[in-house]
Amino acid sequence: MTRKKGAAKRAGRRPVGDIVRELKGSGSSVSDYREQSIRIHGLICAKCGREFDYENRRLLTVHHKDGNHRNNPPDGSNWENLCVYCHDDEHSRELLGDYLAE
Questions:
Q1: pLDDT of residue 8
Q2: Where are the alpha helices (DSSP H) in 1-102?
Q3: What's residue 36's pLDDT?
Q4: For the chain, where are the E strands, in sequence order?
Q5: What integer pLDDT is reported at residue 24 of this predicted model?
Q6: What residues in the chain have per-residue pLDDT under 50?
Q7: With 0-12 CB in 10 A as exposed, 13-18 as middle and 19+ as buried, what is 99?
Q8: Where are the domains of the chain?
Q9: Taking Cα atoms as reference points, which of 56, 77, 71 lies closest to residue 85?
Q10: Which of 10, 56, 78, 90 has its CA 20 to 30 A from that of 31?
Q11: Could you give the maximum distance between any two Cα atoms of the chain, in Å?
Q12: Per-residue b/e over 60-74, b at no fewer than 16 CB within 10 Å?
């Protein structure tokens, strides 16, 4: 089954391209707040304390404390730098908590 252009609009949905453009245009980009968080909080995981350097900094991620990826205050108060392992663990705990709460 093929869909014609404009089918998304007729069905009451917005085209993905429009949504992506809107998100890119609103606020800071991921790389902007990531670099800012690294400058503010340093190259260290806030949970396990592992230190990173320029070579392996890609393993350090920015976690939004309130879960809102659009909440990017310039002072970094909604961010904490977590290694990929601690970041996965943090989100797994949230999923498990939500599941057990039901």
A1: 44
A2: 7-10, 16-25, 30-41, 84-101
A3: 93
A4: 60-64, 79-83
A5: 58
A6: 1, 7-9
A7: exposed
A8: 26-101
A9: 56
A10: 90
A11: 52
A12: bbbbeeeeeeeebee
Q: What is the DSSP string of 49-60?
A: --B--TTTGGGE
Name beta bridge partners: 2. Answer: none
Residue with tokens 């404390």: 65
Q: Is 21 helix (H, G, I), strand (E, B) or coil?
A: helix
Question: Looking at this protein, which amino acid is placed at residue 9?
Answer: K
How far apart, in whole angstroms, are the C-alpha atoms of residue 102 and residue 96? Answer: 10
Name the residue type at position 96: L
Q: Identify the pLDDT of residue 30.
A: 61
26 CB neighbour count, 10 Å cutoff: 9
Structure-token pair, residue 65: 């404390």
For position 99, what pLDDT does the model report? 76
Terminal C-alpha separation, the chain = 38
Tell me the whole-structure pTM to 2 decimals: 0.63
Are 87 and 48 contacting, i.e. CB atoms less than 8 angstroms apart? Answer: no
